[in-house]
Amino acid sequence: MGLQNRCQSTCKMFTFEHTSFKKSLLMLVIVVLLISFTYYKKLFKPLNYSKHNAKPTAIMEYNSNYRLKEDDLAIREIFSYINQSVCNAPFIWINKTTSGLEGRAILLNHMEKHYVGDDLIVQVDMFDYLGEKKTYGGDFLRARIYSKKFGAGASGRIEDFNNGSYNIHFTLSWEGSVSISIILIHPSEGVSLLWKARNMGYEHIQFTGKFLSNSQEIHRECGFYLESKEEMCEYADKKHDEFFYCIKPPNVPCEALISLMSSNKPHSYLSVMENNIFNRSNIGVKVPINIGTITVLKPQEERAEVMTKCRTGLSPPFPSGYFFQNVWHSLFCNLSSYGPLSQINTCLSGKIIYLMGDSTLRQWIQYFPKLLKNLKFFDLHGRGWHKRYLALDMDNNIFIQWKRHGHPFVTNGFYNMKEYSTITNEIDRLSGDPYTIIVIGLGHHFRAFPLTVFIRRVLNIKKAVERILIRSPDTKIIIKSENTRELGVEPERFSEFHGYIQYNLVKDIFKGLNIGIIDAWDMTIAFGSNSAHPSETIIRNEINMFLAYIC
């Protein structure tokens, strides 16, 4: 019973609503102060920079002589909440872990006829490789219904009973034959290992800085945390408590850093036996489903459901929509009764659009010229895909810019550091007005680092969003969530579980603000996409949702 009680669902949304925070804040602070110094020293060791007298990048070790800042307490609170929500399942040996092939799925609410608008509930019971029923939850499952013939798909909402059984809830949104897909991405034991490994340190990624001195290039190691006694260059955003370091080349000023790149280090925080869980054959295993095809009929009575216009300030549910004929239809706002893409020239006329984030937002600016025939790229003479992009439509007075987000930016090619900036600082530089639109999208590059790095960044961005909405309430802010990616690519670094945690974190931290959410996670699951860079079909539908918020 002890393990069962400690195992919480990793497949339900983490909720950080302000009301629950306020009620539990005092209790959580007391708990934090009572937790032993030894525990926090172990948990947050990678964040201690005392070796070279530098300031920590995230959570401070507890010290009676140091007064934690409000942000540090908030980060601890959020991290503690997630830590309690992740199942702490023991790994003994592989045969005692959850087996997708041993899973059993049955339809709970089977009816002779299913109609559009009905709910479909599938019960899934999970077993280990020995055929023994699991007694705790926390398995990382993914579920969708789909109809290839109609280009249709929708995500399933997973309910974890913490006893090895799950209910998966689907909404039937289109007519025709519907198939069900349920896959086990990671067993609960694998989830526990991934969570442990992620927060143990910074050894997954190595950064290399290029310094220029008298036309000579000098390379030095850089990062959030460096195990070195050599002199350091500190690149600090002290206002937002974000820090980055490089080992200083002799007789070269720190200002001589011109570019940065990264590489994946051959490092693992897991043992050889633990890593066996993450063999490709054990990731994304289909759970057997003996339900057959579901035939969905037109409803006997038309359901006159009037949805509000898509606008900022709404909180999308999960699932938030579905694909039909490769077009995304919203379940929470009126997207399907008109085509925002058909009005794109009128909608974006006179607008200044800032795309701030990773390469999944860069896909937007590369796709926009297919929608705006007069949109032309302005050559800023940068190098590589990570350079800043600027596109202009002089006839319709449209300005679109993409700029990469700040550290960490994971890429094996050098990128320019001369115009480095974080999303937080980029937003703070803008005055804002009814013609300014900011789209934010980040996540993938943070997966290989302790979650506290991501929490701090998102909290800082949230504050910047709040500030610009105070000085200019008419500024439009859109958050594009993280999307799914390849299942078998270095799971310890880039697992979908890491992305799932971040996806929920972003939605909950920004909840209640006057912003729009584009749920790319939901879209890519519904579409059956497993690519870090989704297809143009998904990009087109993301942009369509974006236009619905601002038109």
Automatic annotation (TrEMBL):
Q: Which UniProt keywords apply?
A: Membrane, Transmembrane, Transmembrane helix
The segment(s) forming the NXPE C-terminal domain are: 328-551
* InterPro entries membership: Ig_E-set, NXPE4_C, NXPH/NXPE
> Has the keyword Transmembrane been applied to this entry?
yes
Spans traversing the lipid bilayer: 21-40
User: From which domain of life does this come?
Assistant: Eukaryota
Report the family membership.
Belongs to the NXPE family.
| Name the record gives this protein | NXPE C-terminal domain-containing protein
